[in-house]
Design a protein that fits this description.
By secondary structure, the chain is an alpha+beta fold. The protein contains 3 helices and 9 strands, in the order E-H-E-E-E-E-H-E-E-E-E-H.
Length: about 130
């Protein structure tokens, strides 16, 4: 089992905590033997690793689009964001409920070790590097 902590930007941590309850003590991504678990304050998902379809690193977000829990109307993807520097976008075969209103086909998480999470998910799911 591998656990990855979110990378909280100190300038914006108060806003993320206020809007989602997320803080360094209750926000992390865990890749287990058969499951992916993401905890983000009051929000989170749990899904089988077999549900992971793709993993990619994305970078350099607009701050107002990256912080807190966000949904995209364009692709219905969700973000659990703690900084604007970068994140790991995890795409699913079957959408997950990362946000309350609708199922999300993807979830971006802004963990501290982007390469480590992406590599761990690829190995655990058999996806190409």
């Amino acid at each position: 089992m591998s656990t990855f902590d979110f990378d909280f930007d100190p300038s914006w941590a108060w806003l993320v905590r206020l809007s989602t309850g997320a803080n360094p003590d209750n926000s992390h991504v865990t890749v287990g033997d058969q499951r992916l678990v993401v905890d983000f304050g009051w929000l989170g998902i749990e899904t089988p690793l077999a549900n992971v379809r793709d993993v990619r690193i994305t970078r350099d977000y607009k701050t107002w689009k990256a912080l807190g829990a966000r949904g995209s109307l364009a692709d219905r993807g969700a973000t659990y964001g703690t900084n604007a520097r970068g994140g790991v976008c995890i795409c699913f075969h079957e959408p997950v409920h990362a946000l309350p209103l609708f199922a999300n086909p993807g979830l971006t998480v802004t963990v501290a070790d982007l390469d480590g999470l992406a590599d761990t998910l690829r190995v655990a799911t058999g996806l190409p590097a």
